[in-house]
User: What shape does this take?
Amino acid sequence: MKKTTLILGCGDIGTQLGKQLIAAGHRVIGARRNAGALEGTGIEPVALDVTDDAALAALPDADFVVYAVTADRFEESAYAAAYPEGLKAVVAQFAQRETPPKRLFFVSSTSVYAQQGGEEVDETSPTEPNGFSGTLMREAEQALLDHTLPGTVVRLSGIYGPGRDRLIRQVKEGRIAAANPPMYSNRIHRDDCAGVLAHLIGMAERDEPLESIYLASDGDSAPLHEVMAWIAKQLKVETPEVIQSPLRRRSSKRCNNARLRASGYTFHYPSFREGYADILKQGGFLPAKEKA
Assistant: This one.
């Protein structure tokens, strides 16, 4: 019998996940504010605001639920509504059903880690976030982990991919992060975000044991200067302007993905080189002679 996966907050990553699951034989329902954006994807669209209890009650039953809702703005109230409040409401709604989901997956973030001194972090590392975004994300994680409904948290590091090319544009403008002190960065390609979730859903479908938390980041926690210098070389541009803090919130840690790899997942883009090489080519960023 065909399994049903419900993706709440079915945006860019959710759409890629849905396509992979459909190819694997799942029925996929995608819920988002603008359901019309899912037209032509093969995903069954449902309009949803997670703060609307009646809309949550009307959601169909599913074997697997993926909570990938994002805050609509970078404000504490928006984060509170999207993460702890929204996730708690969804968990409460599905836990009381006659046929609850087999597992609920929460798409979280490495912002739950406060480490800034280049430390290595994994799923067992302390999570003591300083800002409201990480604090509220961590509250949402714990709400799921403490519930009787089976749940798994997937902490994504810095997402990049088609349309997520801010770093490339900074380099094109001649800007680069300082080499010292090294500011370690962590990233995961959009396609691997979807791939990781599809992999874990597949494990749950096969009744394979799942951990409660997975850290999803590629295998290369490179200094940001190194990443930007590599992009500059591909673009054949000079980067005379050193910027001390190219990211909105300064952070420097090294994410260890050993648990995820041990589960059997193989990255499509194991480092920034493979991922950015594809984006540079597909996005038309390379010098003309490089496009052939």
Notes: The chain has nine helices and 13 strands. Residues 105 and 167 are 29 Å apart (CA to CA). The first helix runs from residue 12 to 23.
